[in-house]
Amino acid sequence: MLNGIHPSLTGELLAVLDAMGHGDAIVVSDAHFPAERLGRRVLTAAESDMPALARAICTVLPLDAARPAEGMADDGPDAAPGGRLGLHDDIESATGLAPGTLRLLERDDLYAAAGEAFAVIRTGELRAFGNLVLRKGLAVPLQL
């Protein structure tokens, strides 16, 4: 445990976030995601749901201004137009995005992004389509 660091941010996860460069992506996935097949580095955070871990990550990871986050569209037979779910509202709240602004990717596009991502963090999220791409922005230097 460290002061000021969310307890869900393990040393291993913090090291991954620190090693990322500007524009690098991580995928924060649900428990159903094929992380081992798609990810180059896979971390597990089974005790967290996806929006909660995304919120914790955003306390230390600056998001890219141009493409901060992308979610996974619902492609099921009963999907709403555009594939938007209530889960996407939770993601916007967790990441600080304005309501209705989360860009949604089709399954194959999100899987392709996962294959190129710096890491995939599999959570205990049980809701389907609970997958999120976060892109690292520029860190603001700390004034000492």
What name does the CATH topology carry? RbsD-like fold
**Can you tell me the number of structural domains?**
1
Total strands: the figure is 6
Estimated radius of gyration:
14 Å
Alpha plus pi helix count? 5
Distance between the termini: 23 Å
The CATH superfamily bears the name RbsD-like domain
How do the strands of the widest beta sheet line up side by side?
2-5-1-6-3-4
Describe this structure in words.
This protein has 144 residues and is α/β, with parallel strands linked by helices. It is built from five helices and six strands. It has one domain (23-135): RbsD-like domain (RbsD-like fold, 3-Layer(aba) Sandwich), CATH 3.40.1650.10. Strands 2-5-1-6-3-4 form a six-stranded mixed β-sheet. Strand 3 (69-72), helix 4 (86-95) and strand 4 form a beta-alpha-beta unit. Helix 3 (50-57) packs parallel to helix 4. The two termini are 23 Å apart.
List strands and helices in order, with pairings.
Blueprint: H1 11-19, E1 25-29, H2 35-38, E2 42-45, H3 50-57, E3 69-72, H4 86-95, E4 103-105, H5 107-116, E5 119-123, E6 132-135
Parallel strand pairs: 1-5, 2-5, 3-4
Antiparallel strand pairs: 1-6, 3-6
